[in-house]
Amino acid sequence: MQREIKKIVIKLTDRCNLNCVMCGQRVRNEGAAGGIYIKTELLKKFFQNIPENMQVYLWGGEPLLHPDFEEIVKFFISKKGKVSINTNAFLLDKYLDFLIEAPIESMIVSIDGLGDVHDSIRRTGGLFKKVKESLFKYIEGTRKYQRKNVVINFTILKDNYLDIEEFCDEIKSWDVHSITMNFLILVDKKKGNEFAMEVFEKCGKKLESWKGYSGDYKNIFDYDKLGQICESIVNKHGFFVRWSNENFIPDSKNLEIYYEKPDTLLESLIPLTCEAINKPCSEIEESLAIDSNGNIVICPDFPDTVIGSIETSKYENFYNREIYSLYGLDKEYKATCYRCAHRSKY
After folding, report:
1. Judging by beta carbons within 10 Å of its beta carbon (0-12, 13-18, 19+), is residue 194 exposed, middle or buried?
2. DSSP state at residue 320
């Protein structure tokens, strides 16, 4: 059975120059000193014959740390790819002239609050000021191309949720494309262990990466207050503020279930039929994900769901949907998927 490949997701490196409080990769001890950089020549060889207009999503770690970052971006642009970059923007100044001139589809920048709030969450003093100054130069530079492509990623945390309205008001004045509000990815420990055991018994593979998302996030919000804030944002900013779970209604009841009961599916929270909820996610249906070590994985957030390698596999092989059946994720959502934004595509 064939599938479409509409999007390529590439983790250029697991190395990062920040140490964010909510980062699941840090919990898994990824991004250590030195880190892993994807091999540029292998990457270019593997994708030599990709079709035009492919969505190409570059992330990390921090993708701008890759020593061949500019060469990789130029390669995919030469293939008529639509390149998006997910960055903390700490190194944006280093590549400012290049990125202004390059036809980037989306420049996705993570900012989790104003001033000291952002600096505290990212554990880096002066970061907000540095990122704001760099972004303003980028936005000004791209105006001549009428390219309004900056998307701000905001992760809702106990440290910043009371300031969301002020944050949205401020970012709106920056002349960016939009804000995406992200809810934490959560994996229930019991369900995660059950899924890991199921996979091990089926194919002898050990899944450990889900543990990076299995922290206890109960009772961290006043759900009534957060629900009121979300409603106010929707009413005030409309589609300028988007939600990572597109079909999720962030009212107080749904928010409480989302965080307090991560072992449940989202039937009661997303207005879709049970049949639609159990359809495979967009990663299986239309994406090809590459980890920084060159492994091809089913899900970019869980790098041990390996199904191949750019060194030993051929790109064309991954039009075969059967390859994606190894972990059972092609048939139904598992514990790793209960609180994941990818499922909202359906």
Report:
1. middle
2. B
